[in-house]
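Cross-check.
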Amino acid sequence: MKFMKLGSKPDQFQTDVENIRYVATELATDIVISVGDVKFYVHKFPLLSKSSLLQKLVANNNDESEIDIQDIPGGPEAFEICAKFCYGMVATLNAYNVVSVRCAAEYLEMYEAVDKGNLIYKIDVFLTSSIFRSWKDSIIVLQTTKAFLPWSEELKIVSQCLDSIAGRASTDPSRVDWSYTYDRSKTEINGLRKQLTVPRDWWVEDLCELHIDLYKRVILTIRTKEKMSENIIGQSLKAYTLKRVPFFTTKGNNVTKYSNVVETIISLLPTEKNCVSCGFLLKLLQAAIIYECGEPGRAKLLRRIAGQLEKASVGDLMIRSSNGDTTSVCDVDVVRELVERFVMREQCAGTDGSNKFVDEIMCKDFSDADGSKGKVGRLVDGYLAEAARDSTLPLSKFVGLAQMVSGFPRVSHDGIYRAVDMYLKEHPSLTKSEKKQICRLMDCKKLSSVACAHVVQNERLPLRVVVQVLFFEQARAAGSSTPDLPGPVRSLLPRGSYGSSATTTTSEEDWTSEELQGELSSLRLGNNKGGVDNADKVTAKKVKRVFSRMWSNKERRGETSESDTSASTSGEIKDAAVVVNVKTTNRTQKKLLEAK
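Predicted model, tokenized:
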């Protein structure tokens, strides 16, 4: 840190009693100057010789020996340094006190016209030659200016700090030879100091120490006067937010203060797409919700996030609900609005972008060439699987969000199956009709073999869903994509799914398959507690029960003649045998056929 020493005489200021300071010399003091609560017993001549203000006050004081100056910037501490300068005593200026002393000297009118080499001149030289040439000192001085407004603004100390900081932040990293926070420019190897490449965002951590108003002015100055990548500015905004804003709770925090910080950061976001990550935008949205930021700022964030929603992760979307009217843990409404805006962005592509939900830039930039819709579909599947763990999540919200992406392309429906299964697991009190409603969200023909194996042994699913999967597995094994399903089973299919080709998973769904494999192992372990063949018996029992219902329904309706029914029944038994042969042991298959 740079510093400047004033004077050379020993410091003779002493304290008599509380709030009384005096100069200990043989010559008696002849004036008392009250500054705040402190009284200074000093001599007229040294002070009046350098301060035009004190000359005027003494002249207008009608020969009284006491002067009162209550509004001097910096208070008693700054005045004492000015007084020591007048006496020629030792005093030290540095980045922490130079602003207060400079403002106090201005207040006391310590100009060159009063005395050559006066305090104002010396401080200005110190600022120009030392402080504003130092990266960290400039930041410290800028931070201290806030306490001395409007003096520091009128004296142009603030503007000079801004120019200094902006200029150094925009310096070519190869020319950066000063220290900065988390210095990564040098390291020691075998006792030698080796120069490493300075990162382009070397300056972002140091600016985190600034008050939000000053930080905003620095960023605006950098944008206006210097050439700086918006990507780096985005990194600075992220670093500042993560350091200055507490997340997840408002307990013990100043809501108004942090709301101002968040709204300011939102206003500073780069206009270019992808300059800030979707994950950071979602954290910012969470903070905006927690600290009750204004609707314009939240709407701006929602538009920005919707413009790159495909780049979010499931963890990013796990925003906790802050609505006192709901008991849900996850804020599904926010995610729903994001997906809605994403859909609107697609629909307005090629239009004038005047829709209130989306920006014109987002509409023009939209393209599904990178598979954005598929990525968002899988993202929502993963989010629903996590949100389903919330036992207070209403079925209507779960189904509503899932239906919004039901038309998005997916190679596999393993993700939505995992979400459905998790919801059934955490909400065991669902009625049969509710289970049927939620199971319609998935296309059983698009389940992987791992998911199908899980379905067959899943006691939480309706029986007809299990049979539906068994039929498709039979058809898949036989090399056919369009099995001739009985009417009752065909009626279970989602609209438009019957006759579609079966699919398998890709590496993009591996995370889902891995979790399903783990759950499948758990199911097997649980089912095997009663015996080695227990899992096979469970599967066979399910198939037997459903086929019994199907056959009994046919007989009641009289859909076919007795001979046709016999032939059909024989064919269905054969189909069931093929399915069970794939899913069960030969012994279980034999018992099933005998039972029929």
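Residues 3-173 form a domain with the Potassium Channel Kv1.1; Chain A fold (CATH 3.30.710.10). The first helix runs from residue 44 to 48. Passed to J.P. for a second look.
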